[in-house]
């Protein structure tokens, strides 16, 4: 890894635990404990089923109940939100510092080893990090160019991310009887949450972070999954991740950006 790539990795990691990542050479052999994130999206692997079951047990334990007391689709939605947030956060961190890579990594490119209760370990191809820096070097402005060509390129990169690894995760979790409306709402919420984390950790990156997020939120996949108040930019999703239903009698608290929040 070049010094500049290593420095960029450290800068992104400084934004918070969901932005932290390791790196590997694209196509390199897997080494224990790393696994390809693509196995999560292959139902025959059983990895998603295992993760949903683990989330279900953890949610149930929080209310002192057996795992079966939590609906499977609730656990699946919560598991999906965590997976998507972990994937999009480092890439939005790169976008805030430079720009979204024009060719975002696929799930097959990404590596992980599982863990609950926080951000699981994630590794990105070094080539992805280098591409973000290279794309920035040839751009006409910081993070996302303001000219037509830059806007088109940024929208294309955002679309590639949403139609690639993000959609693969949506498709995989939809098999657990979770509405795609909910799942794409999870994606919108993850994007907004990542931006909030960036702004909190590095206020100077607020403008490029929000610009990169808007490229994703304006994509057809997410356009109808949220609303942004034009007066204050407040984000609100148009669905619920269902986590409130994990509490006894489905009477848990809802998230701050939930459609069920009364304003």
Structural class: alpha+beta
Main beta-sheet annotation:
4 strands, mixed
- Which regions have little confidence, pLDDT < 50, spanning 5+ residues? 138-149
Roughly what is the average pLDDT, rounded to an integer? 90
Contiguous helical run count = 9
| Quaternary form | single chain
User: Rough shape?
Assistant: globular
How many strands in all? Answer: 6
* Measured distance between first and last alpha carbons: 48 Å
Strand content: 5-15%
Radius of gyration: 18 Å
Please indicate the count of domains: 1
Range of helix content? 40-55%
Strand order of the largest sheet: 1-4-3-2
Task: Tell me the series of helices and strands, N- to C-terminal.
Answer: HEEHHHEEHHHHHEE
Structural account:
This protein is of the alpha+beta class and about 260 residues long. It has one domain. It contains 9 helices and 6 strands. It has helices spanning about 5-15, 40, 45-60, 70-95, 125-135, 150-175, 180-200, 205-215, 220-225, and strands at about 20-25, 35, 110-115, 120-125, 225-230, 235. The strands form 2 sheets. A 4-stranded mixed β-sheet has the order 1-4-3-2. Helix 1 (about 5-15) packs across helix 5, helix 6 (about 150-175) crosses helix 7 (about 180-200) and helix 7 (about 180-200) runs antiparallel to helix 8 (about 205-215). The longest helix is centred in the middle third of the chain and has 27 residues, at about 150-175. The N and C termini lie far apart (about 50 Å). Mean pLDDT is about 90; it is low at about 140-150.
Q: Keywords for this structure?
A:
single chain, 263 residues, alpha+beta, four-stranded mixed sheet, two-stranded antiparallel ribbon, 9 helices
């Amino acid at each position: 890894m070049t010094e500049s790539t290593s420095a960029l990795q450290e800068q992104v990691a400084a934004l918070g635990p969901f932005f932290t990542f390791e790196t590997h050479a694209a196509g390199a052999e897997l080494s224990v404990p790393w696994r390809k994130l693509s196995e999560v999206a292959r139902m025959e692997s059983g990895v998603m089923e295992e993760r949903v079951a683990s989330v279900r047990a953890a949610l149930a334990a929080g209310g002192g109940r057996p795992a079966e007391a939590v609906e499977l689709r609730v656990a699946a939605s919560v598991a999906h939100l965590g997976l998507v947030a972990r994937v999009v956060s480092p890439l939005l961190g790169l976008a805030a510092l430079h720009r979204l890579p024009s060719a975002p990594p696929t799930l097959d490119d990404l590596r992980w080893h599982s863990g609950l209760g926080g951000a699981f370990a994630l590794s990105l191809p070094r080539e992805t990090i280098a591409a973000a820096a290279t794309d920035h070097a040839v751009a006409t402005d910081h993070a996302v160019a303001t000219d037509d060509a830059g806007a088109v390129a940024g929208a294309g990169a955002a679309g590639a991310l949403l139609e690639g690894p993000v959609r693969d995760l949506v498709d995989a979790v939809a098999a657990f009887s979770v509405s795609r409306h909910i799942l794409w709402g999870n994606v919108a919420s993850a994007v907004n949450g990542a931006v909030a984390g960036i702004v909190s950790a590095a206020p100077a990156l607020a403008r490029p972070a929000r610009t990169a997020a808007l490229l994703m939120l304006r994509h057809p996949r997410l356009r109808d999954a949220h609303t942004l108040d034009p007066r204050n930019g407040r984000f609100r999703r148009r669905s619920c991740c269902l986590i409130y239903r994990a509490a006894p009698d489905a009477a848990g608290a809802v998230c701050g950006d939930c459609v069920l929040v009364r304003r």
